[in-house]
Write the structure tokens for this entry.
Amino acid sequence: MKLILASNNAHKLEELRAILSSLGMEVVSQKELGLDLEPKETGTTFEENSYIKAKAVMDACGMPAIADDSGLMVDALDGAPGVFSARFGGEQCKNDRERLDYLLLQLRDVPEAQRGAKFVSVITMLTPDGRKIVARGECRGIILPAPLGENGFGYDPVFYVPEKGCTFAQLPAEEKNRISHRAKALETFAKIVKEENINADK
């Protein structure tokens, strides 16, 4: 099955391709189809925004679409930035590093014991015949007071994973792809797909 990814994010495309290829699913970006869509993410949850993006692409191309909506939820900030992770800090923050610095500024007086956080990913697949699969994954960690590591993107340099003893940005890509929130969402997604296929063969 060919799936159109409702994103032009090269990092997401790479992660989804790496994992879904084992299910016989080919993932292509909307850009490869000549689609230039940026649907307004008006949802208040990752589930809502993931659905909005998948439906916009499916409706535009008439093909099965898959979307990921993900973000960082910080305990001390009551779950912020959440669905606004890519827009955290408003227009004054124009890139990943500025958003990361803004996050650290908000947490400057928060002690380590209260700097718990989680990355969340929700993946939605929609097909023109009405099929819908939704899968959620989470990865717990701690927000460091300063960035460490050169890999990854976004908030990865300050997201410390205790069981690994390092940040997301210090992990090799293949290791991050194995334990990340997106990896866990995709693992759940894969289980659902396999169960549906087994039931369809009965």
About this structure: Helices lie at 10-20, 46-61, 96-106, 173-179, 181-201.
